[in-house]
Amino acid sequence: MKITDFKGKKITVMGLGLNGGGVGITRFLSENGARVIATDLKEESELGFSLEKLKNVENVEYVFGGHRDEDFLKADMVIKNPGVPWTNRYIQLALENNIPVEIDSSLFFKLCKNKIIGVTGTRGKTTTSSLIFNILEKAGKNPVKVGIGQVSVLDQLSELEPDSWVVFELSSWRLSALGKYQLSPHVAVFTNIFQDHLNYYKNLEEYLADKEYIFSNQKETDFCVINEDNETLRELEPKIKSQIIKFSDKEIGKGNAVYLSNDDICARDRDRVEKIMSKNEIKIPGEHNVKNVLASIGATKFIGIENEFIREGIASFVGLPHHLELVRNFQGVRYYNDSTATSPDGAISGINSFDEPLVLIAGGSDKKLSMKELAEAIAGKIHKLVFLKGEGTDKIIQELKNMGKEDDFIIADSMDEAVWQARKLSSEGDVVLLSPGTASFGLFLNEFDRGDKFKKAVNDLR
Is there a single domain that holds both residue 282 and residue 330? Predict the structure, then answer.
């Protein structure tokens, strides 16, 4: 496939959305001569943020408030939002009529000639991807971020130099398209697997099946960096055809690996072991972030990046917005934004990152996940508790009630109210932590909007 193939073609973009992906696709297609139909279930008034970014983009017809059969029957191609299931009626309509259906990830892989490092996992994708990017940048490899956080995909093709490495954050949804077209990255990084997105998938096995596409079409000359401490991932190792690089917070005695030995981070290249750096040089908080660092070293060390650049890239990395982000120290209370903790396991990691008394802001929409372990973490460690309303919150409360914790919380209708209540509950030396453990839809546009509203409310405190 070539970029010139889009010229003059009629292409339907299904799901303009608010996260930037649909905007990037639409702009890319327009700039390369396609006639674009951008269709979304949301009304025009709800898509103002995205439409503002496309106001000067030509050759685009917009369809708001629903989808039309004709846009899927009379198109040369359909590009669906990653979150739209392949079983969707309109997607099936296109496929049944031999209209090719793509996701931005599959098109990128088909068009990109550079080597790609792909990162997936339930937790840690964005931080690990960003660490890898930072290391490659220090090493002068002209890396390009793709799909990391709110970074779009197809319009990043124009940023590539001949020697650029691509660092691509790959959700299970984006991987589903790679599986469809038998594509995998040169370096696959699999951080972990936990229950998630069960509002989309029937079960964990179906979710994992899409995740496995990150390595399933690799060759023997490729690399797969995998978490040795995650039991489910260990069981996948016989399926991996590429060169396996394991990472662990415990010593690994054979093979290619990155691991902790006391407070030293070491790399094993077959029988040769060397210290890369000290764990104490890591700036970002949380034991889960130590694992992200180990994964990033595995992805870069074995493609030839020198230790000094690895160490510099990690030691200079101070974190990301919405990932245990320190927002403010106000009247002796520190406020942290961990809004991208959209699953129970993510919130548990956030909670376990602190030893100080915690005032937790949690809850929101339900993704059909068990809340028992999160409720146990809350009952065992949280000093004071504020919930954002939602069906996910109801499930956490029920689990707390099952443990006899019935009245030790406040439910807020907005982020402003949640922050105000947290302020009243906190004392000097406490930490107020937004780590929801749930999805954001309902009260917020997405997890980034949720985090932004938290930061605004905190910075407005007087």
Answer: no
Distance CA 305, CA 140 (A): 10
223 and 360 share one domain: no
What's the pLDDT tens digit per position in 380-420? 999 999 999 999 999 999 999 999 887 789 999 999 999 99
Residue-range definition of the domain harbouring residue 342: 325-459
Quote the number of domains for the chain.
Answer: 3
Q: How do residues 187-227 score in pLDDT, each as one tens digit? A: 999 999 998 888 888 899 999 999 999 999 999 999 999 99
State how far the Cα of 266 lies from the Cα of 297, in Å rounded to an integer.
Answer: 10
Distance, in Å, from the CA atom of 145 to the CA atom of 205, rounded to the nearest integer, reads 29
Inside any domain, residue 280? yes
